[in-house]
Amino acid sequence: MGTRYRVQCLRPDHRTPSLVGDYDDVEAARSDAQAIKTIRPADQVTITPGVEHKEEIAQDLTLLAPARFEPTGDSEEIG
Amino acid sequence: MALYVVSTGKVTLTAAATKSLILLNPPAQEVTLRKITISLDGSSAAAGVQFDLYRVSTLGTPAGTTATPALTDERDVASQSSALTALTTEPTAVTVIDSVYLQPLGGLLPDWQPFGAEPMIKGGGNRLGLRYVTPASVSPDCLASFWFDE
Lengths: 79, 150
Known about the structure:
Largest sheet of chain A: 5 strands, antiparallel
Shape of chain B: globular
Oligomer: heterodimer
Largest sheet of chain B: 7 strands, antiparallel
Radius of gyration of chain A: 15 Å
Low-confidence stretches of chain B: none
Mean pLDDT of chain A: 86
């Protein structure tokens, strides 16, 4: 699985960021991140490269973990 | 039948955009959508955000964040459905079932579907989705979820 790019947005009055989306294309990620930053200039908007691990849906009751996104590089902040 | 929930988590909506928040892909058997919840957390009042509940007519290659349905009763077995949330590539074509407007500043829809009017999905490749349509310069945070029987 290739690198995906997670765009997140953190409002100054919030403690946790919200997801904008996970993108296969870094330019699409930058475009949406920039659009958010333009409208919400006080927010911290970041792009983080990473890999999404899709958990197999268990049939035996033991596993119900959500898919995980693991960062593989530093976040880029849109300014 | 067991009841499951797919939630988006906190998502920031993109302005002047039409994007899906949830795309549910049931297994072979039918699935009944019991409840849809949507809440918005904008920082100021603005033009309303439109939400469309739809069936996919032409799938294409939608992409987003993979989500695993959560159990509402821990005695049940895991859901066989899969779902995407916060889509970044939309399905090719959809048929809208119903639409509503919600105000970005505190908009809340705690239960879209009344009893007796719940949409059903046949399964076997059929999909049901929820998307938003935002006006220009409107970019609130949002939480949405599908509650469904499988």
